[in-house]
Write a structure and sequence with these properties.
By secondary structure, the chain is mainly beta. The protein has one domain: Substrate Binding Domain Of DNAk, Chain A, domain 1, CATH 2.60.34. It is 14% helix and 40% strand. It contains 3 helices and 10 strands; from the N terminus they run ββαββββββαββα. The protein has a 6-stranded mixed β-sheet, with no helix packed on it. Strands 3-2-6-7 form a 4-stranded antiparallel β-sheet.
Length: 164
């Protein structure tokens, strides 16, 4: 396992992006891991959150201590794939090739982050934190593995609603 990101990541509108290739405008596509982009949502709307991204050789063991867990397929569409803050000020190279991956996004404290809403730079860290795990894998449908909070439930409902 290799840690690609272990940092405080600034979010605006509760969003962090994984991008390769050109921007995608349809958030439904980004939720599903299509078109070279992932949209990662947080409970906190504005401020810094504890964020870790890991690259694994194979599917990592599922850690049930996380409150929210979802998996999606992902295929970069260029040689450069980055984790990018919403404001574009910071980005982290994810060292992914143009091949199929599985991505697991896990969260703790999304509802607490949503209640806090905004974290100023001089305030202590919030209780929400996030883990992105990536490994090579053949495409499989997206799966919701665990959901305990209202914030995650709302975003899951949005992500799986028909586009119209």
């Amino acid at each position: 396992m290799k840690v690609l990101v272990g940092d405080e990541v600034q979010v605006d509108y509760g969003q962090i992006f994984v991008e390769s290739g050109e921007d995608v405008s349809d958030p439904h596509d980004a939720f599903a891991g299509q078109a070279g982009m992932l949209l990662l949502l947080t409970g906190l709307r504005i401020g810094g959150v504890d964020f870790t991204a890991e690259l694994h050789d194979s599917r990592p063991e599922l850690d049930e201590t996380w409150e929210e867990i979802v998996e999606v397929p992902f295929r970069p569409v260029s040689e450069e794939t980055v984790l990018r803050q919403w404001n574009g000020k910071n980005r982290w190279e994810l060292e992914l090739g143009e091949r199929d991956y599985r991505v697991r996004y896990s969260a703790i404290g999304m509802d607490a982050g949503r209640s806090k809403d905004v974290r100023e730079d001089d305030e202590p860290p919030t209780d929400d934190r996030y883990l992105l795990q990536i490994w090579p894998a053949a495409p499989e449908p997206a799966r919701l593995l665990k959901q305990t909070g209202r914030t995650a439930a709302n975003w899951h409902a949005f992500a799986t609603s028909p586009v119209g």
